[in-house]
Amino acid sequence: MSRKDLKPFLIYRGAAFFSFFFFFLIVVFSSVIIVFI
């Protein structure tokens, strides 16, 4: 795989990781709200 093909792959992997992390953060935040209520 050439260097030109690697950059969009890294961007896609970073976006997938960021969206997964954001989803995990929402789940934790909502569970904390449920515990406090």
Provide a descriptive summary of the structure in words.
This protein has 37 residues and is an all-alpha fold. Helix content is 92%, strand content 0%.
Task: Enumerate the spans where pLDDT stays under 50 for 5 or more consecutive residues.
Answer: none
Distance between the termini: 52 Å
Q: What is the H/E string?
A: H
Q: Give the count of helical stretches.
A: 1
Query: How much is the average pLDDT?
Result: 89
Beta-strand proportion? under 5%
Query: Sheet with the most strands?
Result: none
Number of strands: 0
Structural class: mainly alpha
Radius of gyration: 16 Å
Q: What is the helix content?
A: over 70%
Shape: rod-shaped
Transmembrane segments: 12-36
Keywords: Membrane, Transmembrane, Transmembrane helix
What are its keywords?
37 residues; mainly alpha; 1 helix; rod-shaped; membrane; transmembrane
Layout of helices and strands:
Elements: H1 3-36
Structure summarized in a few sentences:
The chain is built from 1 helix and no strands. It is mainly alpha-helical and 37 residues long.
